[in-house]
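Q: How would the structure tokens look for this protein?
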Amino acid sequence: MSPSRTDIFEQAVMGRPNYGPLRMSLYRLAPSLMVCSDYLDGNLCGMYIDEVETIIVDRRLTMDVKRCVLVHELVHWARADSQCGGYQEIKVRQIAAEALIDRKRYAQVECMYEGCSAAMAEELGVTQEVVDDYKSLLSIRKGSTMSAAGQWSSLFDGYGYRVIAS
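A: Here is the predicted structure in token form.
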């Protein structure tokens, strides 16, 4: 049995790799997934097209932003979800934020910069939107704890994720 998309996602983002190593790992972990870059229109930074299992990242972005976009689109892939917007998009953004930000490092940076999202994003190597999504996730979880081993499965469970048999 081949690994599920969730398993592949977990492996790919383990250790929070930079854009290049993350993209290269996907060629090995998910050979059916195509990841490419191109010039995208308007404010579009990236997109996932489920029908052809393809992620496109705008090539004009900085490496840190490309990494954030790739992880975000990878969450859409893991969920076999090409829809954008609404509640499902909020969940995708929260899953991506948790994949991109280390909990302990976040706590340090939050104290250093007194919660300033822009300064925290710069220090963490992510976008301000990712920091804000992480803050939102923390406020939802306020008072609860989650083991590191259970973080991904709990985020994927109950949010429309389905395993695709190959």
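The beta strands are 34-38, 46-49, 54-58.

Residues 63-78 form the longest helix (16 residues).

Upvote if useful.
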